[in-house]
Amino acid sequence: MIQRKLDRQELHCSLIALGAKAGLILLGCVSVVRLSVAYQERLERHGEIAAVVAVETAKLESLQSGFDRLFTLGGEQRLLENQDQWIAPNRLRVVWR
């Protein structure tokens, strides 16, 4: 009788330990899945940001080269030519010297 109680008590303890281990394994699996989803989202955002940075870098290089051309020979004339398009057709252009 005592042996059966001990066996039954050992079985209950083993089942509780098995349930706890299964719960921890399930918790670990869920955590890994959630982390992988978050990592994938971050990779996608990084790709988008990298694309925007590439576009903005190309714009910056274009503007820098245009700015540098203003300080070469004939840069003043190029500046004035570019300014013509900003003046409305019915306006008189005034150049201060």
Number of domains: 1
Structural class: mainly alpha
SSE string: HH
Oligomer: single chain
Quote the beta fraction: under 5%
Shape: rod-shaped
In percent, how helical is the residue content? over 70%
- Low-pLDDT parts are none
Give me the number of helical elements.
Answer: 2
Number of strands: 0
Sheet bearing the most strands, described? none
- Head-to-tail CA distance between termini: 115 Å
The rounded Rg comes to 36 Å
The average pLDDT score comes to 88
Ordered list of secondary-structure elements with their pairings:
Blueprint: H1 2-69, H2 75-84
Task: Throw out a few tags for this protein.
rod-shaped, single chain, mainly alpha, 97 residues
Written account of the structure:
The chain is mainly alpha-helical and 97 residues long. The protein has one domain (2-84). Helix content is 80%, strand content 0%. It has two helices and no strands. It has helices at 2-69, 75-84. The longest helix is centred in the middle third of the chain and has 68 residues, at 2-69. The N and C termini lie far apart (115 Å). 0% of the residues are buried.
Structure described in brief:
With 97 residues, the chain is mostly helical.
